[in-house]
């Protein structure tokens, strides 16, 4: 596998600068095909697709790990599958998956400033590209053929803010793209037909448990009342219509009982959203991924010359880290 993405020199830097200067809300760095987040080709069922379910793996990717890969390829909880292909039976595993996937890098993180020794934003985007290829390589051939993955940049530290920007971006992209998606059908169906409509995006944020704790922390909102107001709009079907899927993971250096207390406290804050099926906890369910795997673990092990770090990332990411001498000091 190529160590470098197939984009021209300076491509990512130019897009990063556009976002940082607020010339653009969101910039797509890479898409697996030009029609993302819609399917590759217009097909008859697409005319009846009323919702595009988009999973969003939003992380610092410093570096991407096997846990990122497992989370990116995790199946959606049953209730996020509602309102997919209307009136049609689910015929394949691909249709049980998300309609599209997004790897998202925020150039402004609420907690993590860029530090000396970190991978640059450009390097992280290159590793995200390698991760997107690993996502396709780790699933069945039939699912890989329908890969619908994108990489994007945003300059917004909060999930509530990201949801607003992404919905605006996706709406504008859909308006510009959807006429071409139905062009092949116009001889059979009038453009004014009720069957032709732009699908609504349903954003499903994929998080680790430590990130869920931050999402439900009042300090990022100013007060608990402001937090609950913001989250109700974030999760409401009449608002941003978002979901959160969280992977259970033991927080590093925490005793099991302490972890249980943290989880119970966090879920008590999220009770309203868990009961409304807007927040779900899942297990990554793979023997190859340790629940404690984290990017900070990889960085520490590389710095300490502990070769076990290679087990925590995919071979393509490991090769990239070595070739670019990342995290060595």
Q: Which strand order do you get reading across the main beta sheet?
A: 1-4-3-2-5-6-7
Structural class by secondary-structure content: alpha/beta
Taking pLDDT < 50 over at least 5 consecutive residues as the criterion, the unreliable ranges are 43-47, 82-91, 184-194
The count of DSSP E runs of length 2 or more, i.e. the number of strands, is 7
InterPro entries: Rossmann-like_a/b/a_fold
Organism: Suillus plorans
Protein name: Nicotinamide-nucleotide adenylyltransferase
GO cellular component, one term: nucleus
SSE inventory with pairings:
Elements: H1 11-20, E1 26-31, E2 51-58, H2 66-72, H3 93-96, E3 100-106, H4 121-137, H5 141-145, E4 149-154, H6 159-181, E5 200-208, H7 209-215, H8 224-235, E6 243-247, H9 256-269, H10 271-275, E7 279-282, H11 295-303, H12 315-323
Parallel strand pairs: 2-3, 2-5, 3-4, 5-6, 6-7
Antiparallel strand pairs: 1-4
């Amino acid at each position: 596998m190529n160590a470098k993405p197939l984009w021209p020199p300076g491509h990512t830097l130019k897009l990063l600068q556009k976002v940082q200067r607020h010339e653009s809300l969101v910039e797509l760095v890479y898409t697996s095909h030009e029609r993302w987040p819609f399917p590759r080709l217009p097909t008859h069922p697409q005319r009846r697709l009323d919702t595009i379910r988009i999973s969003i793996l939003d992380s610092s990717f410093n570096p991407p790990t096997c846990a990122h890969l497992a989370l990116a390829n995790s199946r959606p909880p049953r209730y996020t599958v509602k309102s997919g292909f209307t009136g049609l039976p689910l015929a394949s595993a691909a249709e049980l998956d998300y309609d599209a996937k997004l790897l998202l890098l925020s150039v402004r993180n609420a907690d993590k400033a860029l530090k000396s020794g970190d991978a640059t934003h450009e390097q992280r985007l290159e590793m995200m590209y390698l991760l997107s290829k690993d996502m396709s390589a780790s699933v069945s051939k039939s699912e890989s053929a329908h890969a619908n993955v994108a990489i994007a940049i945003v300059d917004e530290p909060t999930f509530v803010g990201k949801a607003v920007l992404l919905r605006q971006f996706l709406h504008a992209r859909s308006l510009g793209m959807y006429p071409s998606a139905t062009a092949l059908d116009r001889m059979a169906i009038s453009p004014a037909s009720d069957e032709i409509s732009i699908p609504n995006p349903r954003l499903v944020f994929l998080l680790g448990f430590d990130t869920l704790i931050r999402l439900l922390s009042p300090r990022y909102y100013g007060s608990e009342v402001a937090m609950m107001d913001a989250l109700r709009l974030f999760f409401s079907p009449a608002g941003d219509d978002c979901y959160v899927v969280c992977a259970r993971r033991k927080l590093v250096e925490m005793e099991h009982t302490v972890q249980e207390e943290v989880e119970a406290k966090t879920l008590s804050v999220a009770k309203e959203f868990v009961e409304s099926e807007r927040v779900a906890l899942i297990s990554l369910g793979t023997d190859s991924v340790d629940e404690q795997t984290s990017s900070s673990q990889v960085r520490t092990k590389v710095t300490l010359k502990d070769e076990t770090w290679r087990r925590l990332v995919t071979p393509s990411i490991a090769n990239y880290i070595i070739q670019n001498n990342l995290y060595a000091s």
